[in-house]
């Protein structure tokens, strides 16, 4: 064990406990706010259920306060015991235990906050209110059916724009929560279709997310023109030639070769040269708050920008407890998307809102920085190893220098799902022998590194092996580096 890694690993852990403290305080704030609201309305709510709900809320407020005291103790130990490997290992386990506790608790929080509420809240009553904590705030035909719209998401949506979106005249933008990232996409796509905005051919990045690629190609057929995300001039020339009504691009593609389009240059071209009405739709899941397209575009009447992302990846701060998505759009588009979300039934569930910690730019940026640091470290370390090998079934590491995941490219003889799964099995087995948590599973942005075979069952994507790094400290990254190098040697 390199002793020089111990102190920076303690620094990492201190940041981790600060993040956990923030998540716990978010949940505590949700519970306290609900407790106060229900307490004020209890005289008009059904007595027995209200008493039980308030008692449970109070109980969990106490448990969260106890948990916060434990976190504060762990933070203190991370500072005091900053040169001892045994203490480091104990705090690593304490971080994991706290993380698992909090992510399990997120479902309880949402249930308790909305326990007295109704999906169809009443706006008036003769004996008892059937609007729960939202008694007095329900307006007939406006917010009396939560599938259409609910007050639970409204506060989060406003905070999302405030914390995570940079733009001139930001007050013109609105965020809309959906029940998943794909629900955000289908809402946008149906909005474009229903409003008759897909008037001509559209451009789509050929490496865009395979699920929405399938929707576009099977719905629009010959109207879809694929472009190579890395050929910026070619994209601009295609815009000039065919004058597309819509462009779909990912800020960082979740595909085999992970291309990152030069959206800065593409947006600059549209901003200064394009005179036609056009919609630019960006899936910003891969970069999140680290890419700010509204700031780049500014206010341009004929260029409509719609940005969406899966909230489950980065914004959820690794909890992976509920699905969720968000759309950000400006002006009249925002209002029409709101109506479209309502009619499509893609709104997020009321209880799910409270699984997401209150938006906070500092903590999201800090988390993204850690994830990218770990991905960059692992990708460069593995590539350095491969460069020295005369013979290895893994040809190269594919990593664009941004984001939290990279892919492994194998030689022709081993580029098949059977061998990908064998590689994963070896890696997980070695991790177990090294007492290291490595998960064979999908998604990215979580606390523990995941290794996964993705795009397996699609005709619109090439299967590939992805490694998405977690928030492990630098000591743990060294251990994982050794595990993956050994896997390559055995494989």
From TrEMBL:
Record GO cellular component, one term: cytoplasm
SUPFAM superfamilies (UniProt xref): PLP-dependent transferases
Gene3D superfamilies: Type I PLP-dependent aspartate aminotransferase-like (Major domain) (3.40.640.10)
GO molecular function: carbon-sulfur lyase activity; pyridoxal phosphate binding
Cofactor (UniProt): pyridoxal 5'-phosphate
Keyword Cell membrane on entry: no
InterPro entries from the UniProt entry: Cys/Met-Metab_PyrdxlP-dep_enz, PyrdxlP-dep_Trfase, PyrdxlP-dep_Trfase_major
GO BP annotation list: transsulfuration
Pfam families: Cys_Met_Meta_PP (PF01053)
Keyword annotations: Pyridoxal phosphate
UniProt record similarity statement: Belongs to the trans-sulfuration enzymes family.
Protein name (record): Aminotransferase class I/classII domain-containing protein
């Amino acid at each position: 064990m390199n002793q020089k890694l111990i102190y920076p690993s303690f620094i990492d852990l201190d940041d981790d406990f600060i993040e956990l403290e923030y998540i716990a305080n978010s949940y505590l704030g949700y519970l306290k706010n609900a407790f106060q609201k229900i307490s004020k309305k209890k005289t008009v709510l059904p007595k027995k259920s209200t008493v039980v709900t308030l008692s449970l809320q109070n109980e969990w407020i106490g448990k969260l306060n106890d948990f916060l005291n434990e976190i504060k103790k762990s933070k203190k130990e991370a500072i005091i015991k900053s040169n001892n490997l045994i203490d480091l290992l104990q705090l690593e386990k304490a971080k994991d235990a706290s993380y698992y506790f909090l992510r399990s608790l997120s479902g309880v929080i949402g249930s308790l906050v909305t326990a007295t509420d109704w999906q169809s809240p009443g706006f008036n009553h003769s004996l008892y209110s059937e609007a729960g904590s939202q008694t007095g705030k329900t307006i007939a035909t406006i917010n009396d059916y939560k599938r259409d719209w609910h007050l639970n998401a409204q506060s989060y949506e406003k905070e999302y724009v405030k914390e995570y979106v940079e733009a001139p005249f930001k007050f013109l933008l609105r965020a809309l929560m959906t029940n998943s990232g794909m629900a955000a996409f289908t809402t946008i796509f149906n909005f474009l279709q229903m409003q008759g905005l897909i008037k001509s051919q559209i451009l789509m990045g050929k490496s865009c997310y395979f699920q929405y690629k399938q929707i576009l190609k099977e719905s629009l057929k010959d109207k879809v023109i694929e472009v190579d995300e890395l050929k910026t001039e070619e994209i601009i020339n295609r815009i000039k030639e065919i004058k597309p009504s819509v462009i779909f691009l990912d800020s960082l593609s979740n595909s085999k070769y992970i291309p990152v389009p030069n959206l800065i240059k593409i947006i600059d071209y549209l901003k200064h040269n394009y005179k036609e009405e056009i919609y630019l739709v960006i899936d910003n899941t891969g970069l999140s708050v680290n890419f700010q397209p509204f700031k780049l575009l500014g206010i341009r009447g004929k260029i409509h920008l719609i940005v969406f992302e899966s909230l489950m990846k980065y914004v959820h701060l690794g909890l992976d407890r509920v699905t969720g998505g968000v759309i950000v759009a400006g002006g009249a588009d925002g209002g029409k998307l709101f109506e479209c979300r309502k009619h499509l039934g893609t709104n997020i569930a009321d209880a799910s809102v409270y699984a997401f910690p209150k938006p906070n730019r500092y903590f999201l940026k800090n988390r993204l920085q850690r994830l990218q640091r770990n991905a960059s470290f692992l990708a460069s370390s593995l590539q350095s190893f491969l460069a020295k090998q005369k013979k290895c079934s893994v040809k190269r590491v594919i990593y664009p220098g941004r984001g939290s995941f990279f892919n492994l490219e194998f030689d022709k003889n081993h580029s098949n799902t059977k061998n990908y799964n064998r590689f994963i099995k070896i890696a997980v087995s070695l991790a177990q022998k090294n007492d290291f948590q490595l998960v064979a599973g999908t998604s990215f942005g979580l606390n523990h590194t995941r290794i996964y075979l993705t795009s397996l069952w699609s005709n619109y994507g090439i299967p590939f092996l992805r490694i998405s790094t977690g928030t492990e400290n630098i000591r743990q990254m060294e251990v994982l580096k050794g595990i993956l190098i050994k896997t390559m040697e055995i494989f």
